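Researcher: Dear colleague, please comment on this protein.
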Amino acid sequence: MFSRAADRLGYVQSTITSHIRHLENASGKKLFHRLPRGVELTEAGLQLAPFAYQFLQLGQFTKIKLHLTPGLQNDITAQVVNRSIDLGIVPKPPNREDLLFMPLLEEKLTLICSPSIWEHFERLGWSSLYDCSLISFGDQCIYHTYGRSVLEEADVSLTDHLTFSSVELIKQTVACGMGIAFVPASNIVQELAAGTLVSLPYSYDITLTHGIITPKSIEHNDASQAFISHLRAHFSEHYVFFQKEKGAVSCSK
C-alpha cells in the first residue's frame, strides 16, 4: 500500500506500514483508507496532517545519534548503494547513475618524505627512492593507486609497502624515514611548516574532488539535510583558510 512512500524514503514497505499502524494506534483513529490502487487520507488523517508537517519542520534532532565510520571509496559506495548508511564522503565522484555526488572541496595529493630521504632525492633524483616503502591505507586506497601511477611514470618500482589505518600513523612513519606516502595537502600543513615532512615534486598534479554521496531516489529528512548543510559550510570555511595560508586547496563551485 505504501510502496511509493517506502521508495522515496529509502525503507522497505513493511517498515512504513508498521509506522503507520503505530501512528494510528497512538492517535486512536484510522488515518488512511486502503484502496485497490493506493491509499487516501481519512477525515482524521486530514486533521492530523498539518500537525505532522509542523512537527517535521521543527527539526527534532535531539535523539538522533551520529555514527562515523572510516572506509575506502569502494566500500563506502557499496554501503550507500545498499542503504546500510545514509551518506558517505568519498575522494572522487563514483560515476554511478543511481548516486548523487555533492562536491565539498578539491585538494592536491602530495608526495611526502622525511628530511633525510629528501637529501638523498636532491642528490640522486628518483633513483634514490628504490629502497623506500610506499606507505598508505592499503592497495585498495585511491591515494595508493594514484601514487603507484606517479612512481611508475618516474620509472620507480618499490619492492615493499606498509599499510596503516590512520593518516597520523602514516605521517609519523614517513617522518621516521621508513618510506614515502601520498596524502592530501591539508593533512600535512603543520608538518611541512615545521620541517618534519618534506614535499617531493612530481611531474603533474593529482587533484581529488572530495564530496558527499547519497542515493538519488531518497528524499533526505530534516536531520540529514541539516548535517549535509553543516558539512558544506564547514568545508567552505576550510577552503578559505587553505586558500589564504597555503594556496593548496580550491573549492569546487
About this structure: Confidence is low (pLDDT under 50) at residues 240-253. The first helix runs from residue 3 to 9. The radius of gyration is 25 Å. Residues 9 and 221 are 8 Å apart (CA to CA).
